Description:
Layout: H1 2-19, H2 24-27, H3 39-56, E1 61-62, H4 71-75, H5 77-92, H6 96-99, E2 102-108, E3 114-120, H7 121-146, H8 158-169
Helix pairs in contact: 1-5, 1-7, 3-5, 3-7
Amino acid sequence: MQHLISANIHYLDQAERLVSGMADRSYANPVENFYSSTLGQHLRHCLDHYRSFLSGLGDAKIDYDSRERSAELECSTEFAICEITRIRNELQELSDDEVSVGVLVKLDCGTGVADYQPSSLGRELQFLVSHTVHHFAMIGGICSCLKIPVEQGFGVAPSTLRHREAVSID
């Protein structure tokens, strides 16, 4: 399961490279074409999910709706980099034995009833990859509007990257 941890760390590294050296005003600049959201808000949202995942490990109950929503994390690249580093370090400490452990994940589908469903840490690490890539796609769009360059493949699902590569080879 180390590949799931490595995949998540890969995206955290991408985020760190993107915001390193970026001015806070760009990081927190709302873009009308993206619902007036900011790069910082999307990154904060992703990091909040990692925080929820990590904080739920102790009692094997993960609640992604219980998030900190730190305004400082949305506005400060320095704070974001510190949080990325902290999360990356905690993920690196997970062992293969822990990743196979069962957990309960709180699900709220908007029906007014939220309950915990069985899952595994491996499945939740996969969810975090998918969720992060989805928000990175929006971050990429925001960066495009702000004329901020992003690295090749930023915000593109791994399966899409493999498909594009296979099609270009043929």
